Amino acid sequence: MERLSVVFMLLSIFAYPLAFLAYLEHFFTRRRMMAGLATAILAFGLAAQTISFIFRMSASGHLLGASAYESLALAAWFVVLGNLMVERYLKIKTLGLVVTPVALLFLLRAYSYYKPPSARVAPISGSFVDIHFISMFTASAAFAIAAASAILYLIQEHNFKKKRASGLAMRLPSLSILERAEEGAVILGFIFLTITLITGAIRANQVWGTFVDAIVIASGVAWLIYLAYILLKMVIGLRGRKPALLAIIGFGVILAIRFAVVPYLSYLHGYRA
Is the dihedral of CA 83, 88, 90, 95 positive or negative? Predict the structure, then answer.
C-alpha cells in the first residue's frame, strides 16, 4: 500500500505545476476553458493526495502528521483545499497563481524527507496531538490564503496608485474582493492558531514539564501578529496596506516555524518532524 501512496503523491507533484501553468495561461488570455482546466487539474492533484494519504494511513495504522514528510504533505493538501474553497465561494481564480507554488514547495520539501511509515515517537504521540496537528494545518492553510490575497492586494493597490487602469490591474480581482478573502482567511486561521497554541502548550507540559518551548514561543509571536491584524481591522477600522503587510509577515513567521524552529528542535531531541 505504501508504494501506491508514493505513486499518488507523485501524481500530485506532477499536477500542481500543470495547474499553475493553466492558471497563468488563463490570467493572460482570460479564456474560460483554461480557468476550468486549472481548477480541474488542481482538484485532481488534491484527490491524488487524498488517496495517497488513505494508503499511507492504512499502512501505518495511525493518523498522519507525525513525520516531516507527512506534515509538509498535509500542509500542501490544506493549502490547495483552501484555494479551491476560495475559488468556489469568492470566484477568485488569480489566487491560484500564488497558492499553487506554495503547495508545490511544501510537497517537494515533503518528498525530500520521505521515509516509510513508522510508529510515532513519544513527543508527538498521545493526547491532544491529533487535535494539535489538524488545527495547525488548518491555520497554516488559512494564513497562506491570506498572504496570497495580501500580495495580490498590494500589487493591485500599487496599480491604482499609479493610475494603471488596464493590463495587470484589469486582470486582478478588485481590492474589495481581495481584502475580503484576506480578512476571512486571517480570522479563520487565528481561531485555529489559538487552538494550536493551547494544545501545543499542554503537550509541551506533558512531555517536557513546561508549558513554554521554542515552538510555543514562536507560535505566540505569530498569534500576536494576527491579533494585531484583527485589532487594526475590527477595532480601529484600519484597512488597506498595513493589515496586508501584517498578513504577509505573519505567514513568514509561520514558515519560519515550520522550516527552522521545528527542524531545529527535532534535531535536538533526536527525531525528524
Answer: positive
Closest CA to 225 of 201, 244, 212: 244
Pull the grid cell for residue 54: 488513505
Identify whether the C-beta of residue 229 lies closer than 8 Å to the C-beta of residue 250: yes
Q: Are 69 and 111 in contact (CB under 8 A)?
A: yes
Question: What gap in Å lies between CA 146 and CA 140, rounded to an integer?
Answer: 10
pLDDT band at 103, cuts 50/70/90?
A: very high
What DSSP line would sit under 89-158, residue for residue?
HH---TTHHHHHHHHHHHHHHHHHT-----PPPGGG-STTHHHHHHHHHHHHHHHHHHHHHHHHHHHHHH
3 state SS of 173 = coil
**Which letter does DSSP use for residue 64 in this model?**
S
Q: Are 82 and 144 in contact (CB under 8 A)?
A: yes
Whole-structure pTM value: 0.87
Q: Check if the beta carbon of residue 115 is closer than 8 Å to that of residue 67.
A: yes
Query: What are the cell numbers at 242?
Result: 498595513
Q: What is the pLDDT of residues 163-210, one digit of tens each?
A: 655 566 677 888 889 999 999 999 999 999 999 999 888 877 776 667
Question: Using an 8 Å Cβ cutoff, are 82 and 141 in contact?
Answer: yes
> Mean pLDDT across the stretch 46-69?
84
